[in-house]
Design a protein that fits this description.
The protein is mainly β. It has helices at residues 3-25, 47-59, 384-388; strands at residues 30-32, 41-45, 63-67, 70-74, 77-78, 83-87, 91-95, 110-115, 118-124, 127-129, 146-151, 154-159, 162-164, 171-182, 185-188, 197-207, 210-213, 218-222, 228-235, 238-241, 244-252, 255-267, 291-299, 304-326, 337-350, 356-359, 366-379, 410-431, 438-451, 454-455, 465-468, 474-476, 479-480, 488-489.
């Protein structure tokens, strides 16, 4: 064989070898985890081999790390720049049941963690299962891994995947910029604090998702005074929870701004909560499965909430449809604000005697809030005695519908410490029992307008509307109350 022929054969062999390598590791687009030694056999711990595939993909320009059919046991995986985890149908990333397989990364424990990365994604029709039942079960117990955390990332995509059985929260978006969450499903009932999506980021789009959780389903948080949660849209989701369906807070140290939520259906969870048995003992609750609040807006840590719109929401199986609270739960907390909110197109049927409420505390008013084009079918059962009780301020209590520790004096809305509050075309009716409380009670509200609205009159001697210490313009169905009635009117 002459030198020329040998060179040609050598080049052919090299080309074939290069082709095989490219097929195995896919320099161009994708890397298959099984080519790096991962086994989808439900037995082997694959943390090292999967991480090797992620690192390789990121270091060679990025692309997809593909999980074929199988169940891959793993501890913490770190998702890096320009990498997409792609789960084929019937592929399962399943969290190890050994807590030692989850190191702390920037104060987080997670099954999948991505920190300070850009252009990262999780896609496909497979499942990420956190094995949450294997971890210590206690409310706010530390050391449990969140299922997926994106921490200070830029350009994040989560699409199509099924996220389930977290040991803690399910999907946390922490200080990210540019996030899209689309068509995912979440089912999380394995442990305490099983939130669905926790949003502490900006420029976020969440759409067409189905979420079913033991704790809060969609939660906006601002744990850091310097954190601004802004430019967020949530739309076209089906949401179920045993706590709050859609919630801002409880962590509310920073800013919530320019957020819109629309076209969502809220309904009961698929499971009664085994971690929150008190949900069955709240006033009037007889249904085995209910959510605490449909829409909860809470600023209690000195933060700011401004420019929020919520529209076209239906809700069933909820204890309290609307819960809005501006408070100061710690004495040294800054004075926060909650203003410029429009809630419209709500149709709700409730399953407790705890009415909706809009409350501040003395010196801190909820401002510029409009409730428009809404129908509330609430559970009746309150008495005259309930209507005549004074409601404690409880400024430093944990914000939740039952925080006042008594039934409120209204069956529809209790409004206190507000300014420029408008109820326009709001219908209030009660079902399932005799209701003797007022439809609406307003105390210390400056410039209250109730117009074009309807309510079912309570049984007994009490009038529908009670107004107390409400200076300024008061419209009652476009007719201003007489001056002598403005301070204390039944």
């Amino acid at each position: 064989m002459n030198f020329r022929k040998q060179e040609i054969i050598t080049r052919i062999i090299f080309a074939v070898a290069l082709c095989l390598i490219n097929n195995a590791y896919s320099f161009a687009d994708s890397v298959v985890v099984t080519k790096f030694g991962a086994k989808g056999d439900r037995e082997r711990l694959n943390t090292h081999t999967i991480q090797k595939a992620i690192d390789y993909c990121s270091n060679t320009g990025g692309g997809e790390v593909v999980f074929p059919k199988g169940t891959y046991i793993t501890g913490t995986l770190v998702l890096k720049d320009n990498v997409t985890l792609f789960l084929q149908q019937a592929a399962v990333i399943k969290g190890s049941e050994d807590k030692l397989d989850y190191p702390i990364l920037n104060d987080f424990k997670a099954l999948i963690y991505s920190g300070n990365a850009k252009n990262v994604a999780i896609r496909g029709y497979g499942t990420i299962d956190g094995s949450g039942q294997a971890f210590y079960q206690k409310d706010n117990s530390p050391g449990r891994p969140i299922l997926v955390v994106f921490d200070n990332c830029i350009n994040v995509l989560v699409q199509d995947v099924f996220l389930c059985n977290s040991a803690m929260w399910t999907l946390r978006l922490h200080k990210c910029d540019g996030v899209m969450v689309n068509m995912i499903k979440i089912y999380s009932h394995d442990n305490y604090n099983n939130d669905g999506i926790d949003i502490e980021s900006k420029n976020v789009i969440i759409s067409d998702c189905k979420i079913d959780t033991d704790d809060d389903a969609i939660v906006f948080k601002s744990e850091d005074p310097g954190c601004v949660v802004e430019n967020v849209t949530v739309s076209n989701c089906i949401v179920s929870a045993n706590c709050s369906f859609i919630k801002f807070g409880t962590g509310s140290h920073g800013v919530f701004r320019n957020v819109t939520i629309s076209n969502c259906s809220l309904k009961k969870s698929s499971l009664s909560s085994k971690f929150h048995p008190w949900t069955k003992t709240v006033w009037g609750v007889t249904s085995p499965i209910t959510g605490i609040s449909g829409i909860a807006l809470e600023v209690v840590d000195g933060g700011i909430m401004d420019q929020i719109t919520i529209s076209n929401i239906t809700m069933m199986d909820v204890q309290t449809p609307i819960f809005i609270r501006l408070g100061k739960r710690n004495k040294d907390e800054r004075i926060g604000s909650l203003r410029n909110v429009i809630i419209s197109g709500i149709v709700a049927t409730s399953q407790s005697f705890i009415s909706s409420s809009i409350t501040g505390v003395p010196g801190m008013n909820v401002e510029n809030l409009t409730l428009r084009d809404c129908i509330f079918n609430v559970k009746g059962g309150g008495s005259v005695v309930d209507a005549l009780k004074d409601v404690s301020e409880v400024p430093n209590y944990y914000p939740e519908n039952r925080m006042f520790e008594q039934m409120l004096p209204s069956y529809g809305f209790f409004i206190r410490h507000g300014k420029n509050i408008v109820l326009d075309n709001v219908q209030l009716r009660y079902h399932s029992g005799k209701e003797e409380r007022h439809a609406i009670v307003a105390e210390d509200v400056s410039s209250l307008q109730i117009r074009n609205s309807m309510w079912e009159k309570p049984v007994g001697s009490l009038e529908s509307i009670r107004i107390k210490n409400c200076p300024g313009l008061i419209e009652l169905n476009n007719k201003e109350l007489k001056k002598e009635d403005k301070n204390d009117s039944n």
